[in-house]
Amino acid sequence: MSAGWQSLDLMDLLSERHLQLRGISEKLWNEKNDISISNSEWFIMARIYKKKPTIAHVAKHVDISRQAVHKVIKNLEAKGLVKISSLENNKKDKCIELTPLGEECYEKNAALKNSIEDTVKERLGAEKMAFLKEILKADWGLDRLRT
To answer: What is the model's pTM?
Structure first.
């Protein structure tokens, strides 16, 4: 662990690890694949994998501005990773889904993330890794803090 991390609080430690893991994942993906995909694009792809939500639904359920979501989706479409289509009974809303290429990339990236997780598990040990995941999945009672 970086010496500078010793004084960080919980939120900053989680943030630093998250940024570190996402950076490694993005770098490894982009080194091994012809299609460059940013973390924001992966974030959107994760929300639509095996689903066909509307763009409005995706924008509402991610912590990214609506304009940014539309820009990311247009980039994904230009790369051939998503398909945008009109709803049958609603011309205003558009739905989005991964193309076969998008699904293939998403699944390859899932395998890449699993290999990163395996590396962490080797370092921490299976028991600590399971405990870490259990802690992260637990109800921390944070919903009551939202206003």
So the answer is: 0.85
